[in-house]
Write a structure and sequence with these properties.
The chain is an alpha/beta fold. The chain has a single domain, classed as Alpha-Beta Barrel (TIM Barrel), CATH 3.20.20. The chain contains 9 helices and 10 strands. Helix 4 crosses helix 5. The protein is globular and about 50 Å long. The protein starts with a strand and ends in a 5-residue tail after the last helix. Bound molecules: fe (iii) ion (2 copies) and zinc ion.
């Protein structure tokens, strides 16, 4: 099964979001676990969640994916910043679990000058505080582009974080086509080698979500600016190769391209048209 969806707002509730998604042939979706700037989380409407659950079953809708707010920094050396990240993760994982969300994507963090190794350890320490026996939403570490002091822009770094987490089985990975390319992984001209490397170091079993974005910037640029599908450095062929790759199965493919629902609708049609029949 190929799940395709987009990053959307659920400010009008889960049920409405699932309905809107299905209208444009999406069968997965991503949304912020709370306000992207990290402020208060909205109280849950259990009736809405129940209705959304029923609708998802009816429509054969795939997994729900949440994205942690951008402002939290799991790798921070500042105690208050790190602690805030921990509290947000704990609270949101609990809320998301109640809402039937499968995955929560989080950026591994920024080491802000302390070095990659420090950042890796600090991120793992944070996850070790957050994850418990009861946690049933999988945390997906997003592979980054390597902007500034971002941690987690190589497969090795992601693997190192995972290995330091006690509940390793509750940690997966979310890749992002734009980030991969800008971090130096040539998914345009060498997709098979990149995927083989990923499989060797991390393993496709951990890949649960894949952000599908074209890139405004070239290979290895260490920049992070998303472009609409086909309008950037990656081009349509790259997405055709990814969609039809045998390892891409039961992965939530999520658009995070510029624009609103009308753009997503066009891009999802385009992506679906690229999938070969035997997939
Ligand atoms: Fe992200
Ligand atoms: Fe992303
Ligand atoms: Zn990005």
């Amino acid at each position: 099964m190929v799940y395709i969806g987009a990053h959307i707002s659920i400010s009008e509730g889960y049920e409405k979001a699932v309905k809107q998604a299905a209208d444009i042939e999406r069968n997965t979706m991503q949304f912020f676990s709370r306000n992207p700037r990290g402020s208060s989380a909205k109280a849950l409407n259990f009736n809405d969640i129940k209705r959304a659950e029923n609708l998802r079953k009816e429509l054969n809708f795939g997994p729900l994916v949440a994205h942690a707010p951008y402002v939290i920094n799991l790798a921070s050396h500042k105690e208050n910043v790190w602690h805030f990240a921990k509290v947000v993760m704990e609270e949101d994982l609990e809320r998301l679990s109640t809402a039937g969300v499968s995955y929560m994507v989080v950026h591994p963090g920024n080491h802000v000058g302390k070095g990659i190794e420090y950042g890796i350890q600090r991120t793992a320490d944070c996850l070790n505080e957050v994850l418990t026996e009861e946690t049933d939403v999988m945390v997906l570490l997003e592979g980054m582009a390597g902007v500034g002091t971002e941690v987690g822009y190589t497969f090795e770094q992601l693997k190192e974080i995972i290995e330091k987490v006690d509940y390793e089985e509750k940690v997966g990975v979310c890749l992002d086509t734009c980030h991969l390319y800008c971090a130096g992984y040539d998914i345009r001209d060498n997709l098979n080698d990149v995927f083989e490397e990923f499989d060797e170091i991390i393993g496709f079993g951990r890949l649960k979500a894949f952000h599908i974005n074209d890139s405004k910037n070239p290979l290895g640029s260490r920049k992070d600016r998303h472009e609409n599908i086909g309008d950037g450095e990656l081009g349509i062929k790259t997405f055709e190769n990814i969609l039809n790759h045998p390892k891409i199965i039961d992965v939530s493919l999520i658009l995070e391209t510029p624009g609103k629902v009308d753009v997503y609708e066009k891009e999802i049609k385009l992506l679906r048209s690229l999938i070969k029949e035997n997939k």
